C-alpha cells in the first residue's frame, strides 16, 4: 500500500515536472521573435540551451575577443561568474569559429543554437560582436543590467534557433550634438553602448558649433578656455532661437580632453563602432571665432549678419590664409585622435550676408576669378578637401556643400537632411549620400505635437511609426546608408536625451539593418514594446512609453 501510494506520488510529481518543463520549453520557443533589428534569416529550433557556470567557451580566432569580453562583463554583473575556456571541443559549449569562406559579407554572422552547443561564425570583429548581441537578446532581458544584480541569475535559457544575418547598409549612424548642451564622458559611453546593442555602427559626434567648442586642441588652448564656456561673464552668449531652455543665470561649460577622446574611441571600437568627429565649418563657428578672432575674421570686415538660429557673425573668413593654417593644425590633431578615415566638416547654413563687406574676401574673389559668395564657399571647401587629403582623411559634409558643385574628391560623402528628394537627386548625380531626412530621422523633434512633449517643433513630429516607415530608396552604390540626428538645444539632461532617442533608435536600427521584405510594422511594434523595452528598463533608460 505504501509502495503504491509512493509510486502514485512520484508519478504525479513526474507529470508535474514534465508539464513545467514543457511550459518552460514552450516559453523559450515562443521567445525567438524578440530580436531588434530583425535578422535576415531566422529559423526556430527544438529545445533550449542552458547557459550556466559549467558552460565553456572555445575560440579559434582573436577576432572574437571583443564579443566574448562584452558577454563576460554582463555575465559577471548579472550572474557573478564568467565562462571558462575549454582546451578542446566539448558538449555544453559556446564556440566562436572564423569562417571567411562560408561568410562573404562584412559584419555578417551565423548563429546556431541547439541543446548542446552555441556556435557563432563570422569573418570579422563586427560579425562576432553582432552574433553575441543577438545571443544576448535571446536571453532574459536582465542580462542587460548595468550594475551588479542583487539577486544573481545562475542559469540562462536560450531557445534553439538558426540565424544567418548581415546588414543592409554599411553606414548605420546616430549623431549626438554635444555642443549646444554638453554631455559627460560617462553618458557618451552609455550612448555608444546602447547604439551597439542595436547593431548601429557609426557614432557621429558633433563636437563644435556656435554654442561651444568641446574638443581639446593643444595648439589652440583658447578654443576650450574661452570657446567651451557660455552665459553670464563669458564671451559666448546663449543661443536665442530656437529657444534655449533651462537656466541662463549661470555659465555653462564642458569639453573633452584628448585622453577622454582616446578612451571613448577605444570603447566604441570594442563595440564595433567607429566615431565620426564633426568640426562644423565655416558657419556655426561662433565658439571658434570668439576664441581666435584675429586668425579667423577679417578685422576690416564690416559685414553684419545673423544665422538662422540668430547668432551674429559666426562664420570663419575664407579670404584669410590664417584661417587655413588654423584649420590645418586643428585637422592634424583631430586626425591623430580619431583613426576613422573620415572627418565631418559641417558646411550647412552659412548665413546670408557673411563676407559681403570683407576686403579679404573681395581680394580673394579678384585673384581667383570668383563671381559669387557661393563660389567663395566652393573655394573654401576645395581648400579643406586638400587639407583632409594631406592627412589621409575623407570629407563628409552636409548637403549644402554640394549645392555650388564644388570640385571635390569623388569618394567624399554628403548627408542629405532637408528631404529624401535632395538625397535622391545627389545620388543620380553620382554623389555618395547618407540619408538623414529631418521628416523621418531627426530625433530632436517631438514624437507628437504637444506642449508637454520635449523636443523641437520647427519641423514635423517624428513618431516611432513614422521613423519606421522611412524607406531609403533607391538601391544604388552611391547610397551609403542612413543616420538619425539628435541635436541638443532642448536636451537639458540625460533623461530628455534618452526619451527622444528611445525607442525611435530601434526603428533606425531596423531600417538600416533589415532588408525591406522582412520588415513589418505590427511585428516590429510587438518586439519593441515586448522584450525591447524590457531591455531598456533593465538599463534604467528613460524611454518614451506608448500612448
Task: Please give a handful of descriptors for the protein shown.
Chitobiase, domain 2; 547 residues; disordered N terminus; TIM Barrel; 2 domains; alpha/beta; single chain; 17 helices
Plain-language structure description:
The protein has 547 residues and is α/β, with parallel strands linked by helices. The protein has two domains: 30-165, Chitobiase, domain 2; 171-292 and 309-349 and 392-538, TIM Barrel. 36% of the residues lie in helices and 18% in strands. The chain has 17 helices and 19 strands. It has helices spanning 2-30, 65-79, 125-137, 185-196, 222-225, 258-269, 286-291, 293-296, 321-337, 359-368, 373-390, 420-428, 438-441, 464-469, 494-501, 504-513, 521-538; strands at residues 41-51, 56-59, 84-85, 93-98, 109-113, 117-122, 156-165, 171-177, 202-206, 208-209, 212-213, 229-230, 252-253, 274-281, 342-346, 394-398, 413-416, 432-435, 479-486. An eight-stranded parallel beta barrel has the order 8-9-14-15-16-17-18-19, surrounded by six helices. A seven-stranded mixed sheet has the order 1-7-5-6-4-2-3. Strand 5 and strand 6 form a beta hairpin. Helix 2 runs parallel beside helix 3, helix 4 (185-196) packs parallel to helix 6 and helix 9 (321-337) crosses helix 11 (373-390). The radius of gyration is 26 Å and the shape is elongated. The model is unreliable at 1-29 (pLDDT under 50).
Amino acid at each position: 500500500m505504501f509502495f503504491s501510494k509512493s509510486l502514485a506520488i512520484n508519478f504525479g510529481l513526474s507529470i508535474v515536472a514534465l508539464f513545467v518543463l514543457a511550459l518552460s520549453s514552450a516559453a523559450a520557443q515562443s521567445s525567438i521573435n524578440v530580436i531588434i533589428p530583425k535578422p535576415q534569416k531566422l529559423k526556430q529550433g527544438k529545445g533550449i540551451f542552458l547557459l550556466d557556470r559549467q558552460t565553456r567557451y572555445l575560440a579559434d580566432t582573436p577576432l572574437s575577443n571583443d564579443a566574448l569580453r562584452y558577454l563576460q562583463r554582463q555575465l559577471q554583473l548579472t550572474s557573478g561568474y564568467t565562462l571558462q575556456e575549454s582546451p578542446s571541443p566539448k558538449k555544453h559549449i559556446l564556440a566562436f569559429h572564423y569562417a571567411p569562406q562560408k561568410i562573404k559579407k562584412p559584419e555578417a554572422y551565423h548563429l546556431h543554437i541547439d541543446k548542446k552547443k552555441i556556435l557563432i561564425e563570422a569573418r570579422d570583429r563586427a560579425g562576432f560582436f553582432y552574433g553575441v548581441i543577438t545571443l544576448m537578446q535571446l536571453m532574459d532581458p536582465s542580462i542587460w543590467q548595468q550594475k551588479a544584480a542583487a539577486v544573481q541569475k545562475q542559469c540562462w535559457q536560450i531557445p534553439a534557433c538558426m540565424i544567418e544575418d548581415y546588414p543592409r547598409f554599411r553606414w548605420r549612424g546616430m549623431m549626438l550634438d554635444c555642443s549646444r548642451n554638453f554631455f559627460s564622458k560617462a553618458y557618451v559611453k552609455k550612448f555608444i553602448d546602447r547604439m551597439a546593442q542595436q547593431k548601429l555602427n557609426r557614432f557621429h559626434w558633433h563636437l563644435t558649433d556656435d554654442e561651444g567648442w568641446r574638443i581639446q586642441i593643444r595648439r589652440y588652448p583658447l578654443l576650450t578656455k574661452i570657446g567651451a564656456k557660455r552665459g553670464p561673464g563669458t564671451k559666448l552668449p546663449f543661443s536665442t532661437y530656437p529657444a534655449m531652455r533651462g537656466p541662463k543665470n549661470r555659465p555653462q561649460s564642458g569639453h573633452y580632453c584628448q585622453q577622454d577622446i582616446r578612451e571613448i574611441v577605444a570603447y566604441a571600437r570594442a563595440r564595433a563602432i567607429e566615431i565620426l568627429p564633426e568640426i562644423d565649418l565655416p558657419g556655426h563657428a561662433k565658439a571658434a571665432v570668439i576664441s581666435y578672432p584675429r586668425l579667423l575674421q577679417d578685422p576690416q570686415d564690416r559685414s553684419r549678419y545673423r544665422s538662422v538660429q540668430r547668432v551674429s557673425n559666426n562664420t570663419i573668413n575664407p579670404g584669410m590664409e590664417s584661417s587655413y593654417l588654423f584649420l590645418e593644425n586643428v585637422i592634424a590633431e583631430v586626425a591623430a585622435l580619431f583613426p576613422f578615415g573620415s572627418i565631418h566638416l559641417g558646411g550647412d547654413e552659412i548665413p546670408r550676408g557673411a563676407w559681403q563687406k570683407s576686403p579679404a574676401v573681395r581680394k580673394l574673389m579678384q585673384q581667383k576669378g570668383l563671381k559669387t559668395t557661393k563660389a567663395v564657399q566652393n573655394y573654401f571647401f576645395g581648400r579643406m578637401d586638400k587639407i583632409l587629403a594631406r592627412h589621409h582623411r575623407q570629407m563628409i559634409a552636409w548637403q549644402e556643400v554640394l549645392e555650388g558643385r564644388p570640385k571635390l574628391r569623388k569618394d567624399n560623402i554628403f548627408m542629405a537632411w532637408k528631404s529624401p528628394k535632395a538625397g535622391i537627386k545627389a545620388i543620380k548625380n553620382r554623389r555618395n549620400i547618407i540619408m538623414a531626412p529631418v521628416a523621418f530621422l531627426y530625433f530632436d523633434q517631438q514624437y507628437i505635437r504637444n506642449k508637454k512633449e520635449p523636443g523641437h517643433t520647427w519641423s514635423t513630429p517624428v513618431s516611432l511609426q513614422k521613423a519606421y516607415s522611412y524607406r531609403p530608396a533607391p538601391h544604388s552604390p552611391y547610397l551609403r546608408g542612413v543616420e538619425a540626428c539628435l541635436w541638443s538645444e532642448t536636451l537639458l539632461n540625460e533623461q530628455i536625451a534618452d526619451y527622444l532617442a528611445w525607442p525611435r533608435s530601434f526603428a533606425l536600427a531596423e531600417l538600416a539593418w533589415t532588408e525591406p521584405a522582412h520588415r513589418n510594422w505590427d511585428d516590429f511594434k510587438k518586439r519593441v514594446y515586448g522584450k525591447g523595452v524590457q531591455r531598456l528598463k533593465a538599463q534604467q533608460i528613460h524611454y518614451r512609453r506608448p500612448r
